[in-house]
Amino acid sequence: MSTHRDPEPIAPAELLAGRPPGPAAGEHLDEIARRVAADGRVNVILDDDPTGVQSVHDVPVLSAWEEEDLVWVLEQPGHTAFILTNSRSLPEAPAAALAGEIVGRLVRASERTGRGFVLTSRSDSTLRGHFPAETDAMAAALGEPVDGVLLCPAFFGADRFTLDDVHWVLEGDVLVPAGLTEFARDRTFGYTALDLPGWAQERSGGRIAAADVASVSLEDVRAGRTAERLAGVEGGRPVVVNAVDDGDLEAFVLGLLDAEAAGKRFIYRVGPSFPRARGGITMPEPLTAERLFADRPGGGRGLVVVGSHVEMTSRQLEQALTLGDLETVELQVPALLEDAEGEVARVVAEAAAGLERADVVVATSRKLATAAGGQSDLDIGAVVAGAVVDVVRGLDLDGLSWLIAKGGITSSDVGTKALGVRRATVAGPLLAPGIVPVWILPGDSAVPGLPYVIFPGNVGGPGALRDAIEIMRGGGG
Question: Which domains does the chain have, with CATH numbers?
Answer without folding.
Answer: 12-279 (3.40.50.10840), 289-473 (3.40.980.20)
